[in-house]
Amino acid sequence: MKDALALEDRSLELQGADRVHCLFSGTRIVRASEGSNKDAEQTSGAGLAASQVPATPNGGCLVFVARTGFASSQGQLLQMIEFSQDKVSGDTKEVIIALLILLGFALVAAGYVLKVGLEKGDKTPHELLIKCVLILTAVVPKQLPIQTAMAVNTALMALSRAGVYCTEPYRVPLAGKLTHCLFDKTGTLTTDTLVPVGVVNAGSQPEQDHPPKVKVSDAEAAAALVLAACHSLVQVDGKLTGDPIEVAALQGVGWSYDSQEEVATPAPTTDLPDGSTGSASSRAGIKRARILQRFHFASQLQRMAVIAEVAVSDNAILNLNMEGQAGNYVLVKGSPEALKPLLAANAAPRWYDRSHLDLAERGLRVLALAYRHLPAGQEKLTREEAERELLFAGFIAFECLVRKDSGLVVGALQESDHKVIMVTGDSPLTALHIARTCGISHPHLPGLLLSLKAGQVLPEWVVATGDRCGDCFPVTVDGMDKLASEYALMTTGEALDAAVAAEPGIWAKVDEIRVFARMTPQGKAKVIEELQKQSRHVLMCGDGGNDVGALKQADAGLALLAGYGNVNTADNNDIDSPSEKVDNVPLEKQAEEALNKQDAELAKRNRRAAKDRQKFLWEKQKELAELQKQWLEEEMQARAKNGETGVFSQVGAMKTSMGRYTEELKRVMKEYDKTHGNVYDATDKEEAAKKNPAAALEEASGGLPMVRPGDASIAAPFTSKAPSVKNCVDLIRQGRCTLLSALQQQQIMMLNCIINAYVLSALSLEGSRTSERQLMASSWLLTTASLAFTYASPCDRMHPVRPLRSLFHPAVFCSMLGQAVIHLFCMVAAVKMARAAMEEDSPERQQGWSGPSLKDVSDFWKRERARRRGLIEQEEEEDWTTYALNMWQQPFLPNLMNTVVFLVETAQTVAILFVNYKGQPWMKGVVENRALFLSVVVVAGSVAAAAWEFQPQLNALIHLSPFPNDQFRWRVMGLVGMTLVGTFIWDRFCVFLFAKDIFKAMVDSAKKTTFRADIVPIFVTVLKVAGVFLVLGTGNLLMAGLAFWMYRRHSQESDE
C-alpha cells in the first residue's frame, strides 16, 4: 500500500523515509483513490493539506513523475539492451596484449619479406609493400569478432533453452570463475507462499517453558485483532491483494476486510489457503476495527503498526488484566527481537524468548504481536509515541515449504568445491533450520550466533542451539577457523557491522559464516563486495525485492520469478534420488547425479505434456470447428432479421464467428494449462482437481511467467523462469564451458596467425601462393571441425578443479609458445625440403623427377601478371556465376613448394584444433564431441591420402603436385606426425608442469572413457552418415523420404 505524500520542508528521499510514497518499477497499480482533507489532517507531520493540492479531473491520484525516458528503470533497461557501452568480456587486457604479440610476429615476417625481396630484386617495391600489408592485416583474422562473440552467443542459446534469460552477456564467462554461491531463503530455497501454521497465545500458562502452539483459528481475541487490523491490504475485484503474509494471516483468523472503508470485521467470509490448520470463527464481543492511522513496515525497524478504532461488546476480553473496552488501540506486529524492547515492564512472559526461538529452530517464520489501549483524545501520534508501553498479544508462525531440489543443488555446488552461504532477512534460527535442511550447514553442528545485546558495543559469539546453548565466545579473527569447524556460524546484519567496526579483519574470514540473517538489502550487497575484494567470484541467487542490490553487485546474479505458489515441493516417487540421506541432505558425490536424473525426468514430463497438449488442442479445434459452423449460421440469421444481407454481411458474420472461435480456444487452452501446466510435481492433476479444484488451479498455475521489462528480477543479469534454483548449476556449467571456449579460441587465433604470417612470407619470397581450389578444399574440410569446436557443450557434472582462465597462465602461454616453435620448425623444414627438391640440380631431378622449379613458378606468375595488365581494360563486368566459375578456373601452376606447404599447413590447423581443445572434465571431450573427432580424423586422413596419391585425379583437381619419391613423401609425413604428436605431448607436459591439479583431473576423466559409451557412438555416427550418402546416392526421393520418416519415428519412440 502506498500513502499520499505530505509537503514538508526537506528533500525527498526516494529510497529512504519517503519510499512508501513512491511507485517503483515493477509496481502494478490495482486501485487508486483521491486524497481528502480528512486524510491530510490525520497524517502526522503533514505540511500541506490535501485541500491545497489541485484536484484531479477524474478523481484519481495526483502523481509527480520523478524520472522519465532513459532515466526510468525501463528506460535504463532498454538503453542497456540497445546501446550498451558495458565491457563485452572480462579479459580485454589479455586480448590487447595478445594482439600486440601477434603484431610483433607480423612485423618480423613483413620485415623479412621486404629485406629478402629487395636483395633478390625480382619484385618491385610496390609488390613487396603489398605483400607486407597482407601479412600485417592477417595478424588480426577477419573471424576474430565472430569468434569472440560465438562462445557467448552459444552459451546464451543454451541458457535460453534451459529457461535462463540474460541481459548482460559478458557475465557468462564470469560464471565459470565462481567460487562462492549466496542464496536468499524465502522464494529461492523455499517457496514464496507463507502458510500460517499456528499461534502462541499470550494467555498461555506462565509456568510453561514451551507453551503450546494452537490453530490460527483458535487465536485469542487480542492476537486476532492485531492480525486482522495491522496490515496494508487493499481489495481489488473482491479479492484481497498485498503482502502474502498479511493475506495469509487475515485468512487464518477468518476476518474480512473492506479496504474502501478500512474496516475489519470478524465475519468468516474468506477461505483458508491450502495447508492452513483450521477455519476461523467470529471473535466474541469484537464488532469491528477501523484503521485510523498506519505506520508502514520499515526493514530497518522490522515492524509495522496501526492506530485502529475498535468497537466491542460488553463481554469482550482483549487481555488477562483488563476488561475489553471500545476505543482506540495501537496494534503492532514485527520480529520478536524488535518488539520486545517496546513492551511494557513485565509485559513479556518469561517464556517469550524460548518460545519464539523454539519455533524459529523448526524453520518457522515468527511474528510477535502487541497492542496498547489509547486514552480518549489520543488519535494523532508519531510513531515513537505510539510504539511504546505495549502489551504482548502472542506469536504467529508461518511456514514456507522447501523446494524439493534445493538440497540437491546445494550438494552439487559443494561437491564442486563452491562455498554455499545463505543471506536472508529472516531470523537466524529460521534460516539455520532451512540451511540444515538444504545442506548449507551440517545438520549436527550446533548454531553459533554473532549477537549484539542491547547496550553492548562489541558483539560476541553465543551458542544458539544444542546442549551448550547460551555459552559465549569472544570475537577474534584468529579464532574463527576453529569455531567454524565446531559450529555453524551465523550473524545478523547489525552484529556484523559492530564486529567489523571493532575488528576490520573479520571481513577476511567472512566466508566462514554459513548464515547471514536479518540482513538489509545494503547489507547483502556489502557482503558480496567484501568477498570480491578478496578476489572471490560470487553468485547471488534471489527472487528480487530485497535482493536487488546483491544481484547487481554479484559477478553473476540469478533472479527467480515469483508467483509459483507451492510448485516444486511435492515428493516425487518416480524420480530417483540418493537412497541414503542425513536429514534430507544427500551424501557426498550423489547430489549432482540425482539432480541430473531429476532433470532427465522433468524433460520426459515436458515432452509428454507437450504431446498431450497438442493432442488436446487438435481435439478441441475439431470440436470448436463444428460449433463455429453453428455460430456462423446463428450470426447470419440474426443479421438477416435485422435486414443486413449481402457480401459484407457474410464477411462480418464470418469475422464474428471466427473471433468467437479464437476466444473460446484461448479460454479452453488457458484452463488446460492451469490444470496440467505444472510438470514439477508428479501428482495426478485430475485427482487433485477432484479433491480441491480451487487448490488445483492455484498450485498448478499454468504456463511459466515470462520475463518482462519492469519485473523486479530485471536487476539481475540472469533471470530464471523455473521455480527452482537448479539453473545455478546450469549457469556455472555453461560459464565454465564458455570461459574455456573463449580461451581455446584465443590460442587458436594466435597460433593460426603465427603460422599464416610465416606461410605468407615464405610463399611470397618463392613466388608461389595457395590456389583458390586449395582454399575451397581446405575450407570444406575444416568447416565442420571449426563449427564443432565452437559449439562445444558443457559436461553434466561440475568438477571441483577450476579450469584455466587466463591466456597468460604459464601452462597456457608456455604451451602456446612451444606449439608455435614446433609448427614453425616443421614449416621451415618443409619449405627447405621443397626448395631443395625444386633446384635445377637437385638429387630428385637426377632421379627423374621433372616438376616445376622455383624459376618456372616465378616466370609463370610474371607472365600471368603481364597478361592481366594487358587485358584488364578489355574485361567486361561479370555476374556472380561467371565470377564463381572463374575462381575455380583461375590459372595456377601446381608445384612442390605449394603442395608441401598446403599439406603441412592443413595438418597444423588440425593439430591446433585437436591439441587445444580442452575437453573433459569441463566440456564434452574430443571423443564425445563426435562431429569434431570425426572431422579431425577425416582431415588428417585426407592429408595422408593426398600425400600418398591414392586418387591422382583428385590431387590434380585441387592443384597438388606429385612428390618426387617415397623417401620425400615419408619425410613430409614425418613432419605432419611431428606437428600433431609433438604439440600434443608438449601441451600436456606444460599442463603437468604448471597445473598439476588440472592435469590430474584430465587424466582421471580420460580413464573413465569406455568402449561402449564413447567409442561405439562414433561408429554409429559413421554408419548414419554413410547411410545418408548411400540413400542420397541412389537418387530415389521416395526412399529418402521413407528413410527420414523411419528415423523420426525411431527418435520419438526413444524419447518416450
Notes on the structure:
The chain has 1056 residues and is of the alpha/beta class. The chain has four domains: 92-163 and 728-1009, Calcium-transporting ATPase, transmembrane domain; 180-187 and 403-563, Rossmann fold (3-Layer(aba) Sandwich); 195-399, Calcium-transporting ATPase, cytoplasmic domain N; 1010-1056. The chain contains 34 helices and 23 strands.
Blueprint of the fold:
Blueprint: H1 37-42, H2 73-82, H3 92-120, H4 125-137, H5 144-161, E1 164-166, E2 180-183, H6 185-189, E3 195-201, H7 221-229, E4 234-236, E5 239-241, H8 244-253, E6 256-258, E7 263-265, E8 286-298, E9 303-312, E10 327-334, H9 336-339, H10 352-361, E11 365-373, H11 383-386, E12 391-399, H12 406-415, E13 419-423, H13 428-438, E14 447-451, E15 460-463, E16 472-473, H14 480-486, E17 488-492, H15 493-502, E18 515-517, H16 521-533, E19 538-542, H17 548-553, E20 556-560, E21 581-582, E22 585-586, H18 591-641, H19 647-676, H20 685-691, H21 693-699, E23 718-720, H22 727-765, H23 772-790, H24 810-838, H25 843-846, H26 854-871, H27 880-888, H28 896-916, H29 930-947, H30 952-957, H31 966-994, H32 996-1007, H33 1011-1034, H34 1037-1055
Parallel strand pairs: 2-13, 2-19, 13-18, 14-17, 17-18, 19-20, 20-23
Antiparallel strand pairs: 1-23, 3-12, 4-5, 6-7, 7-8, 8-9, 9-10, 10-11, 11-12, 14-15, 15-16, 21-22
Helix pairs in contact: 3-4, 3-22, 4-22, 5-22, 7-8, 10-13, 12-18, 18-19, 20-21, 22-24, 22-28, 23-28, 23-29, 24-28, 24-31, 28-29, 28-31, 31-32, 33-34
